[in-house]
Amino acid sequence: MAAMTLVDATTPKLGRKRDLTRDPEILDATLEVLAETGYDGMTIDMVAARAKAGKATVYRRWASKGELVIDAVACMKSADIDFNKLPDTGTLRGDLVAMIKPHSIEDGAKKLKVMAGLVSLMTRQPELADAARAAIVGPRVKVNSIFLRRAIERGEIPADVDVELLSHVGGAMATHRTLMLGLPVDREFVLSIIDGVILPACGLRGAATAPPTKATTTERPSGPGYTRRG
Amino acid sequence: MAAMTLVDATTPKLGRKRDLTRDPEILDATLEVLAETGYDGMTIDMVAARAKAGKATVYRRWASKGELVIDAVACMKSADIDFNKLPDTGTLRGDLVAMIKPHSIEDGAKKLKVMAGLVSLMTRQPELADAARAAIVGPRVKVNSIFLRRAIERGEIPADVDVELLSHVGGAMATHRTLMLGLPVDREFVLSIIDGVILPACGLRGAATAPPTKATTTERPSGPGYTRRG
DNA sequence: CATTTCCGAAACTGATCAGTACCGCATATA
DNA sequence: TATATGCGGTACTGATCAGTTTCGGAAATG
What confidence tens digit (pLDDT) does each residue in B101-122 have? Predict the structure, then answer.
């Protein structure tokens, strides 16, 4: 990921070799500063200081501030969800809830903070926008759509639910809460999205909710934590 | 709205009076530039040029760039929804759809563009964040919660739907689509949120959708465009 | 019509920051 | 151990921009 915009780097025959361990450290520092101050507030000196590196070292590896940031953002992608280890609990709710881990929440929060610092620039820098979407939006949407499609195949939810749209609901609510409302996205909030929006929108009801006033609540396969409406 | 941060302005006994028509023109120019370039990209010279005013004229009215922007954002609030003329069609879907007017879509799109230019700063400037939320998030959420509560009172939707949460869904999806995906929020998209997320989450189904595979679709008061599940 | 004050324009000041150049030291090769 | 090179640090350059000052002209008052 980093290599793509790295400044040439022809290996010398003699003398000291480029210290490759500096790259990830500088990229991490970039993400930290980005999350704290945003793109415009971030200076190369801040990044260098954070990484305990010299400014020149940064410019020896990346041609410009813009390319450094694009690389750093692209870097976040790999540190994301492992698609080979997705939960498969047998229920949509189970799968969604299984994704709520402290690490995942924390990681998402940091990514959204980075995103906040880039939003303004993204409208004018398609390359950056693509990198940010691929790193932050893409993976989460993909996971949700996998879970939803599974639930359809399983017959748990109707086949006509708008998977594409519903896959975005979680991320949209988290984004909105962080960027617009300035409130934290914690476990409780994610649960409320699952039980208050996504599952109901699929015709299911969340775990700990009272049955609807009039509806005849037909008990379903009775797996832990959901009932089907209709 | 503008007056609160305006620089003193003691009326003289003699000579030319302050041209009050310049204020709204400068504020409008500010919003335009803000939407196009974001807070950091915006310069006072740009605003002055756009308003065909001198830079000094701007500083004669606002003490700093920050205060100008806060005023401009606060200004957007008043140009919003008229709460005395909210639609009341008798159905939740009818009310929600009645809010989709070309002007409303356009207005929302512009506000989101302005918001995009402020997001990064909002995390570090609570005053600005408050102004932005009051102008952009607040009114829309309020409208949705009014519609939802009405629908509950009417018995159209269950009383246990999470009104607070669902009121944010529309705005969250629009924000996400604009800021993160860089796609336009058009009538079709708003309709898909209504029919694909909000109504289903309330146990209703949108107008032009096939009935669910297994559920017994009980026909309800049979107003145009909805059926109740359960 | 004289006076006062605002206007737009443009020049100026000081701070900040991207990007460059250079230094002396550390380190890996031969 | 001699040599070539990357390292962190610092000083520099040039551009940009917030905010100030100044100026000639235009308007409103009396």
Answer: 999 999 999 999 999 999 999 9
Measuring from the CA of residue A59 to each C1' atom, give the nucleotide at the shortest distance.
C19
DSSP assignment letter at A62: B
Contact B160 A213 (CB under 8 A): yes
**pLDDT on residue B219:** 38
Instruction: List, for residues A58-67, the tens digit of each pLDDT value.
Output: 999 999 999 9
C1' of C7 to CA of B127 (Å): 31
* Domain B81-230 architecture: Orthogonal Bundle (1.10)
- Span B147-155, mean pLDDT? 97
Nucleotide nearest to A20 (CA to C1'): D6
Report which of residues B223 and A88 the model is more confident about: A88
Q: Using alpha carbons only, how large is chain A's radius of gyration in Å?
A: 22
ipTM of the modeled complex: 0.88
Is domain A81-228 in CATH 1.10.357.10, yes or no?
Answer: yes
Structure tokens belonging to residue B150:
């009405």
Minimal Cα–Cα distance from B28 to chain A, Å?
19
Q: How far apart are CA A149 and CA B195, in angstroms?
A: 19
Mean pLDDT of all residues in chain B? 88
> Which nucleotides of strand C are protein-proximal, with an atom < 7 A from a CB?
3-11, 16-23, 26-30
Mean pLDDT over residues A109-118, rounded?
97
CA angle at residue A125 from A60 to B119, to 5 degrees?
A: 105
Within 8 A of A182 by CB-CB distance, chain B residues are: 122-123, 129, 133
Give the number of other CB atoms < 10 A from CB of residue A184.
11
Contact B213 A160 (CB under 8 A): yes
Q: Where in the sequence of chain A do the CATH 1.10.357.10 domains occur?
A: 81-228
Residues of chain A with CATH 1.10.10.60: 2-76
DSSP letters for B132-168? HIIIIIHHHHHHHHHHHHHHHHTTSS-TTS-HHHHHH
Determine whether the interchain pair A160/B193 forms a contact, defined as Cβ–Cβ distance below 8 Å.
no
Q: Give the minimum alpha-carbon distance from A164 to chain B in angstroms, rounded to a whole number.
A: 10
From chain B, the residues in CB contact with A169 under 8 A are 169, 172-173, 197
Residue of A179, A192, A227 to mutate, testing the B interface (most B Cβ within 10 Å of its Cβ): A179
Look at domain A2-76 and name its CATH class.
Answer: mainly alpha
CA distances from A145 to A95, A127, A204, B142 (A): 11, 25, 17, 30
In CATH, the number for domain B1-79 is: 1.10.10.60
